[in-house]
Design a protein that fits this description.
The chain has 96 residues and is mainly β. It has one helix spanning 84-92; strands at residues 2-5, 8-11, 19-35, 41-55. It is 9% helix and 42% strand. The strands form two sheets. The protein has a two-stranded antiparallel ribbon. The protein is globular and about 40 Å long.
């Protein structure tokens, strides 16, 4: 893996997603109702900083917040149970 350090790329042997290009795409904000595992809810203010990225590989490492991931073709996105914020983002990008 290459890690960006002070404008240079440093090599690392860690097997993770390697991003070769990152560019800001858009900024969004929203007020959402978050439901916690115990069922209680809270209204939260969200700020979305969304980037376009190109990767050199497909080695994704997910944290405990997620159960799984999938690389999905744009034409198949409509078949997924996406939350409202994700639907807005993908629609703005022309993918839904």
């Amino acid at each position: 893996m290459k890690r960006r350090c002070g404008g240079k790329y440093a090599k690392s042997s860690a097997k993770k997603l390697i991003l070769t290009h990152i560019a800001p795409w858009c900024f969004r904000d929203d007020t959402r109702v978050k439901t916690y595992p115990d069922g209680h809810q809270e209204t939260i203010y969200m700020i979305y900083l969304i980037f376009d990225c190109v990767s050199a590989n497909r080695d994704v490492t997910i944290n405990e917040e997620f159960d799984d991931y999938a690389w999905v073709k744009a034409e198949d996105l409509k078949n997924y149970d996406l939350n409202a914020a994700t639907r807005v983002t993908l629609s703005l990008k022309g993918l839904l």
